[in-house]
Backbone:
């Protein structure tokens, strides 16, 4: 039996509420212990995938689930950076379930020798910051469609440091739900969010047994 639209909407709202709570814990802990904050993030994300009604895992995948594939924390991939001006750009992403989702590029960040990533604002009700990433390992060790680092409308927000610089910690890069279930609609990175360098940290490519 399929869940009703009301039940589904309430489940997704609760997923986002719990995600926001996790990231609040992460921001508080990461001030003094980024690796410890990452461990909390991994644990709580595993619990959501294993037990929450809005998990993108199928029942069979949940039965085989022993945790998401996440690389060990590496402090070299944590950055606190100023958002630099970038040329205006509008991005309209066609999704299978949500129609066309619009974004405006509002700036960019430089992540050391790794390269430059665009920062987007969701165009529409509520707004929200969005920073996806695709790297040299995409399609091999990391998910081919790319990963998300920031998606504040869904609660994925690493915050700012004490002088207002944006925290971009690639150890928290995670696969969008469509990596596990193609029924989900996921905006994916364009060239403005593609790095030539490898990013071997964060959530890695899902194993076949977890993909619906």
Residues:
């Amino acid at each position: 039996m399929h869940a009703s639209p009301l039940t589904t909407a309430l489940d997704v709202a609760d997923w986002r509420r719990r995600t926001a709570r996790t990231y609040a814990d992460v921001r508080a802990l990461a001030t003094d212990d980024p690796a410890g904050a990452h461990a909390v993030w991994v644990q709580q994300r595993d619990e959501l995938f294993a037990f929450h009604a809005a998990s993108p895992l199928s029942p069979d995948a949940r039965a085989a689930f022993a945790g998401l594939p996440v690389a060990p924390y590496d402090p070299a991939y944590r950055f606190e950076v100023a958002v630099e001006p970038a040329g205006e750009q509008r991005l309209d992403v066609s999704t299978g379930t949500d129609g066309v989702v619009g974004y405006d590029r509002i700036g960019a960040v430089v992540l050391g020798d790794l390269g430059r990533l665009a920062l987007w604002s969701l165009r529409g009700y509520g707004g929200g910051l969005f920073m996806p990433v695709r790297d040299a390992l995409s399609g091999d060790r990391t998910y081919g469609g790319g990963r998300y680092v920031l998606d504040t409308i869904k609660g994925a927000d690493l915050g700012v440091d004490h002088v207002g610089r944006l925290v971009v910690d690639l150890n928290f890069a995670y696969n969008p739900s469509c990596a596990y279930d193609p029924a989900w609609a996921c905006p994916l990175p364009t060239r403005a969010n593609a790095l030539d360098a490898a990013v071997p940290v964060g959530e890695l490519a899902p194993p076949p047994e977890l993909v619906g």
Q: What stands out?
A: The radius of gyration is 17 Å. Helices lie at 5-30, 34-51, 59-63. DSSP finds three helices and seven strands in the chain.
